[in-house]
Structures are given as structure tokens and as C-alpha cells.
Amino acid sequence: YMFHGGTNFAYWSGADYKDQYKPVTTSYDYDAPLSEAGDPTEKLFAIRTVISKFQPLPVGPMPPATPKYAYGWVALRKVSACPEGCTAPAWHCSTGQHPPLSLQYAELLDVLDVLCPSGPIQSQFPLTFEALKQAHGFVVYHTELPWDVLDPATLGAPPHSICDRGYVMLQKEYQGTLERDGQTTLNVTGRAGDTLDMLLENMGRISFGANTSDFKGLLGNISLNSRPLSNWLIYPLAIDTAVQQGWPHTALPESSSGGRVGPAFYTGTFETPGIAWDTFVKFPGWRKGLLWINGFNLGRYWTCRGPQQTLFVPGSVLHVGRPNTITVLELEEAPPTPLLLFLDRPLYNGTLGRSTTATE
């Protein structure tokens, strides 16, 4: 199907529609003759052998595979602030006065002023991505509970109105996920005035067929025990712009709570040993999110669903002689010890629902 298995970097993975919405994986290497990294495979040589029986082959050797490197484990940490009088980012500071790096992160709801510098849009009812002129990525919908909910009440959306995944937080505590063609209700309790936030993820637009008018965001009213909620503040997020400008490595804020469940940013750095070769990154114990290296959005991982278990990292996005910055947005739940593993080979064929480990 594919001659060269390329990569759907950033938000370009798109989606199919076959009886239900089916988002495409970040890798587009469907057992391609030329791999995702551009390397010849056994399939390519087999095709070449067959063609040689009918046509003369090009003169000259086959270009070799590019070198790969297993950079190993990288711990994700918060970059500590410089001591008083030092204004350089932590990884450039030469004072030697930095305290040890601590394991920290920033919850997404705590940094909306960074991710949406223009501020929220007020609306009586939710607006779609299209109405907000938000082509890709994420939008936060924020409101408050209008009455006390002492007994569990049903928070829900009409059918086909969650496009494509909604991560629900009450008083900034992660409650669960609502999903297109999946779960569309959650039971919640709270008090009048408690904050309700829903982070909506656009997982890719349907790219062919009869359903290409694929609106994103909240396409209907969110209700509590069938009573519509209103008075929304809507935050179109410009995450890529912030990351490309150096956030959060230049100014990572303190997190307001200590949990590791729900949408949050994790950061780290690593250095290459004098080379910048292609590599593949694995997410042991992580669930779903996105990865940036040096501000470049490498795409989406979803290890708990598979089949893809690694993301391709071209050597061209890596630095030599200075640290490479890593930013991860984990949407559901990070592992107790947030680590990434850089390998010299891809892992594409994880079985649906299989638990991922750090042993491969």
C-alpha cells in the first residue's frame, strides 16, 4: 500500500471512517518496502528481484540504511530555577550553583495563561473548533457547577458530540474521559461553584469518504442530569507556539497538586554522544499524549491501545554539543517514575490492550 512508510508528525495523522471513527497512527509505515526511517527492507529487495526479471535494474549500489542509535533512558524532570543573580536557563548555567533536578511537572490547567495568551472566549454554550478558528490540537472548555451535586449525577453529551476525546476535570481533579463512538457519560459530585473543565482533543480529520465535514470540539451541550450547562469560558490552546518559544524549559511553574493523573506536561533533557543519529522513543508505562523534542512535534503516542509503541525521531531534529529538550504532554496518567527509552529500532506491533513494559 505504501512504498515509503513516512511519519504523520504533529497533528497530521488524520482519520478513517469505517462504521466508526478510526484515528490513524503517527507512523505511516504499513509494512512498507522503504521503512519509516527511509531504509530498504527485505520486501524492497524481493520486489527488486521480481522487477529484474522483466526490466534492467538501475546501475549502482542500493543506498544503505541510515545509522540508528539507542540513546537509552531519560528521566523527565522539572528544570530547577537558577539561584538569585543567575538569569541563564538551567542547562546553560555555568555557575555550578544549581540544586539537583527534582521530579516535577506542570498541570495543564495551571498554565492556561501561557498556552492561551489571548485569554478565553466567553460563550453561553460550547463552540466548535471551527467557530474558534482552531485547526488542530486542543481546546479547554471551562464552567462552574450551578448547583450542589451531593449524590452522583450524570455528566454527559448527546451522541456524536464529543469530537474526538474529552478529558474531564472537576476542581482540577481528573474524573475520566468522554470519547467519540465510546463512553459519553461520567458520574460526578460537587458543590455549586466548583470548576468543571473539559480538555477536548482533535485526533485527526476524516480524510476521505462521505464524512469529511468532520467538525471538532463540543458539538452539543454538556448536561448534568439532563440539564444543560452554560456560561462557558473557552481556551483555544497554542501549545506548539509555547513549546517552540522555549516553554516550559525556560520557566516551568510550580504545580498546584502532587498527583500524576490527568493532563500534565513533563520535561527533561538529554545529550547525544557527539552524534545525532535517527532513533526511536518508547513510552514505558505512559498512556496517551504527545512528544516534542527541541520544539519539534513528533506526534501522538497511545501505548495502551497500540499497535504503535515507539515514535520515530529523525536525527535532524537533535542537537550535538548541547542538550536536547524534551516536552511530553501526558493526557491520562503518567507512570510513577516518568522515563522515556530511546531505542535503535521501532516497535510497531503491540497487541491491542496489551500492557507495555520497559523490558523491550
From TrEMBL:
* Gene Ontology biological process: carbohydrate metabolic process
Domain Beta-galactosidase 1-like first all-beta intervals: 126-237
What Gene Ontology molecular-function terms does this entry list? hydrolase activity, hydrolyzing O-glycosyl compounds
Q: Please indicate if the UniProt record lists Acyltransferase as a keyword.
A: no
Task: State which residue ranges cross the membrane.
Answer: none
The cross-references to InterPro entries, in alphabetical order and at most eight, read: BetaGal1-like_ABD1, BetaGal_gal-bd, Galactose-bd-like_sf, GH, Gly_Hdrlase_35_cat, Glycoside_Hdrlase_35
Q: Which residues form the Beta-galactosidase galactose-binding domain?
A: 263-321
SUPFAM superfamilies linked to this entry? (Trans)glycosidases, Galactose-binding domain-like
- Put simply, this protein is called BGAL galactosidase
What gene does this protein come from? Glb1
